[in-house]
């Protein structure tokens, strides 16, 4: 009846799945890790690798003292108190341990991102690899996985079903290049991300962003949601998502929101600003979609440009001549092909807003006036990933509609409900990797602890 038997099956080898597999394997369990595609990348590889955490030694070294409760309060405030407060706090409490485990046990070089804070974060709390790139992060996680003889990683292997007995999950069905395989497992962790690549589901649940570019991993078609719903799992917050307002149109590379947070702004083709950019790049994406030709232009200056060159994507864009630059406003407008007179007026209004600390859109964050050499880039809005998914408890165990636990089943990352509430405004930068890596670690640890406990009980 079974093709193989292991302690833990993990489906999906992105950030969540790799961390879950490593956490369980560290406890001497046998782990089978199945990945649908032939690569270990996922959305995690496309990310900027920024992981938020409160109370780390990296923050303390920089003189920043903050508690998980303060971090949770920031996340809740950003999502208008729509996310589950217990889940939110559980992740924030896990965050410093996660960062230090990754640095100490996995040997991943991480540092505090000191250049800028993202909207709504009261302190610098992003931790990232030196390149500020998710590709570096995923490469390091993958290398760690290959060091563990007790992790069996199989590519081109898609989770297609969960196998149940007496309302408990006892295994999985996997579609491999050798046909269907049935794998018996004591615990199953779903780490297959959300449904961003599934046009039909996006149209159905989040029509406001359905016309935007999808900038995530093509394999993330909502499999965990579809498979677990069939066995009675509850689904929460399916309208939540991480949008982004700024993917470089020419190169298909993310333009860091640091451009805005350090003092830049965005205009449309007519040279007009159209909202408070500092509220966050996720909710601003649908505003950009409403502009002529569904795109915008980020405008910033030499000082910002120089400081952001430490970010890999930004540096790559610069080396590809992705940014247009000019000494004057008129020159910049010309090279970007936007209305010259309107852009000049926009600069004047922006300078006045900096003087009074507020503008007509309600923006109050104005670090500086733009001066010296000016820069601009044409950007399009995008859907990065969905943030709703399977309802879980603070151990990452999947729940039914009545909140009872589906025994032996866990979920994390985009497969599970996140901490971004129900709308695009609820996404605070870092919520994606926080719930992917955080719930991956929580799920791996809890699954291992439960297996050990059950072994003792059956002796
Ligand atoms: C451009 C970009 C920048 C971002 N930057 C940040 C950032 O700096 N900080 C942050 O916190 N978040 C960021 N995010 C969001 C973040 O990348 C995601 O929230 C996070 O990577 C999700 O991790 P995951 O493990 O759930 O999914 P993924 O990393 O996407 O992994 C899911 C894996 O599951 C596999 N899979 C799918 N279905 C199946 C199946 N049926 N069987 C087996 N395998 C399957 C997929 O192929 C994939 O490899 C960014 C996203 C994008 C697109």
Can you give me a brief rundown of this structure?
This protein is an alpha/beta fold. Helices cover 35% and strands 22% of the residues.
Question: Can you walk me through this structure?
Answer:
The structure is a single chain. The protein is an alpha/beta fold and 459 residues long. It has 2 domains: 4-240 and 387-458, FAD/NAD(P)-binding domain, CATH 3.50.50.60; 241-383, Flavocytochrome C3, Chain A, domain 1. The protein has 15 helices and 19 strands. The chain has helices at residues 15-25, 42-46, 57-61, 68-78, 85-104, 134-147, 199-205, 223-230, 258-261, 281-289, 302-308, 312-319, 329-336, 340-356, 431-458; strands at residues 4-11, 31-34, 51-52, 111-112, 126-128, 151-154, 158-165, 168-176, 179-190, 213-214, 235-236, 241-248, 265-267, 296-301, 324-326, 374-386, 389-390, 397-399, 405-411. The strands form 4 sheets. Strands 1, 2, 6, 7, 8, 9, 18 and 19 form an 8-stranded mixed beta sheet that branches. It starts with a strand and ends with a helix. Bound molecules: flavin-adenine dinucleotide.
């Amino acid at each position: 009846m079974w093709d193989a038997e292991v302690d833990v099956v993990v489906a999906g080898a992105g950030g969540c799945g790799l961390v879950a597999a490593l956490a369980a394997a560290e406890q001497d369990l046998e782990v089978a890790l199945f990945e649908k595609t032939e690569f270990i990348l996922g959305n995690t590889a496309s990310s900027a690798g920024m992981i938020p955490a409160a109370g780390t030694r990296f923050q303390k070294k920089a003189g920043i003292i903050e508690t998980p409760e303060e971090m949770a309060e920031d996340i809740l405030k950003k999502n208008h108190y729509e996310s589950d407060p217990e889940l939110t706090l559980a992740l924030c409490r896990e965050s410093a341990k996660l960062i230090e485990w990754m640095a100490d046990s996995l040997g991943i070089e991480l540092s505090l991102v000191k250049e800028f804070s993202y909207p709504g974060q009261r302190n610098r709390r992003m931790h990232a690899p030196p390149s500020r790139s998710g590709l570096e992060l995923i490469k390091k996680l993958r290398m760690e996985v290959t060091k563990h003889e007790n992790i069996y990683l199989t590519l081109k292997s898609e989770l297609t079903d969960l196998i149940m007995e007496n309302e408990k999950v006892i295994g999985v069905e996997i579609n491999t290049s050798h046909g269907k395989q049935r794998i018996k497992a004591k615990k199953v962790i779903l780490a297959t991300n959300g449904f961003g690549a599934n046009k039909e589901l996006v149209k159905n649940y989040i029509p406001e962003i359905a016309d935007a570019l999808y900038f995530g991993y093509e394999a993330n078609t909502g499999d965990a949601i579809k498979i677990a719903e069939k066995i009675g799992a509850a689904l929460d917050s399916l309208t939540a998502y991480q949008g982004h307002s700024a993917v470089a149109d020419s190169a298909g590379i993310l333009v860091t929101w640091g451009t805005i947070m350090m003092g830049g702004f965005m205009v449309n083709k007519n040279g007009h600003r159209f909202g408070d950019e500092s509220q966050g790049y996720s909710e601003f994406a649908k505003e950009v979609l409403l502009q002529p030709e569904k795109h915008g232009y980020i405008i910033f200056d030499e000082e910002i440009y120089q400081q952001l060159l430490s970010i890999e994507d930004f540096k790559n864009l610069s080396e590809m001549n992705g940014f247009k630059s000019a000494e004057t406003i008129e020159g910049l407008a010309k090279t970007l092909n936007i209305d010259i007179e309107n852009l000049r007026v926009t600069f004047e209004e922006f300078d006045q807003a900096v003087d009074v600390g507020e503008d007509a859109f309600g923006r109050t964050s104005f670090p500086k006036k733009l001066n010296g050499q000016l820069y601009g880039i044409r950007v399009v809005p995008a859907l990065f990933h969905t943030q709703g998914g399977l309802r879980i408890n603070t151990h990452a165990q999947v729940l039914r509609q009545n909140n009872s636990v589906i025994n032996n089943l866990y979920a994390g990352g985009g497969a599970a409900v996140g901490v971004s509430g129900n709308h695009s405004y609820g996404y605070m930068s870092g919520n994606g990797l926080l719930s992917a890596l955080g719930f991956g670690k929580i799920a791996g640890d809890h699954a291992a602890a439960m297996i050990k406990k059950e072994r003792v009980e059956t002796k």
